[in-house]
Amino acid sequence: MKVKKWLFLPFLGGSSDRDRGQRRDRSRSRSRRPSRPENGALVKHESADAFAKKGEEELVQDYNAPIRWYMLATLFPLIAGTFGPMASMFNICAIAIPWRLIVDPDSPQSQGEHIDDPRWLVAVNIVSLVIAILANVALLGQMTNRLRFNVASPVTIVGWYISGFIDIALAAVAPSQVPLPADNALATYSQAYYYCIFSGAIYVLLSIMLSCTAWGVWIGNYSSEFKLSLAQRSLMLQTILFLAYVLAAGGVYARVEGWDFLNSVYYIIVTLFTIGFGDFSPETHTGRSLYFPMSVGGIIFVGLIIANIRSLVLESTSVKVSTRLVERMRYKSIKAGSPQDGIVKVRGVLHRDTNAPTELARREKEFDVMREIQAAAAHNNRMIALSMATMAFMILWFIGSVCFWQAEKAVGGRNWSYFEALYFTYTAQLTIGLRLRRFRATNKLSKTNICVLVFDCSTDADGPNWRSRRCSYRVSDFKPAKRLRC
Q1: Domains of the chain (ranges plus CATH)?
Q2: For 7, 84, 126, 198, which has the most beta carbons within 10 A of its beta carbon?
Q3: Does the global pTM surpass 0.85?
């Protein structure tokens, strides 16, 4: 393109004769080094010594690599490492209790009598879990450089595909092969059934993402090694430890308080994420004594993981987006101006003249112009970040409210209004929760296992079991504040 011939300004991407001579000298020294990926290919995380040995052009290529390559090589593996163990946790929850339940409308906690599942259903579910765990182990081995990409990646992708399709198939055939009793209007599917759906969907989605990463490696856009730092590689291990903590604490409280296992897991999650709906609370002395170490350790664990996600994923992504914005604005500024005459367009109708009688004065003007371009790019980056955060919050709020609103109608609850669903979702997203007195007044609020794990690590969110009649029976008793006694 003709524009590339115009990039003669040192601070705007070009170079003087002296700079070109220095680059020729450096290119001769680089010719004796091992070859590296071309076209801005991303490589694995490098040490300080390896970084210092890179030439200027190699640094520029890594710096200017397209955002889509960064997403495929860095973000997708991080997302898979975070949500893969979470999907396996959902798979465990799908096996923990039977899929069918006869609701007891007079029971505030047990919520009825379970109907045993067929053995083949439990066996197939266990097979799906074992395959998924093997896939997680393979991904963890790749994260820690214990397994090669060409070994670990096929195992992870194929394993999650198989587990995902098994779970989805089980959920699809359940109404016909594991039907509800037709003579009992209170019969419904329990939380475990919906956990199976969620785990299958997450497995398939993560497999698609890792398939895209493998495709990028196959066509040579970046190295087969994940471009992750040591802290980023530890994110998957942190997630596994936290989920194991949640399951273990849920098992302890299920034994101590006599709750269902999934109800105990729900209680642990809403406690550790400081939502605190108040529908569950320990009644025994042992349970209340265990609450102190459980809550302190778990909340610290959650804080560390969220801080890690913010610093390693969100901030690194922001830096990459800022880099691309600066490059695009620099390129457009030169193209929109008159480079032959030394005129550069900054923004709008503002133009800057970089002509000067001396080389030093010209470089100073170019430096000032580049700083203006960087300031404009930083402003645009802040606006983009604010817009995306606002959009994510609104989508989770309004779409999540629609889910709860329609779920109440679908299962014959007390038919929330959309405003009631908005209110409930808002208090969950901002981790406000609802007042304990309100729960005691109604005594019949949701015992849904809200999976804030899926959304709360990125912003805040609602629970996944919004389709469960078991949860909706308790949610359906939620009423506006004017009907409560304070």
Answers
A1: 64-222 (1.20.140.150), 229-317 (1.10.287.70), 335-430 (no CATH)
A2: 84
A3: no
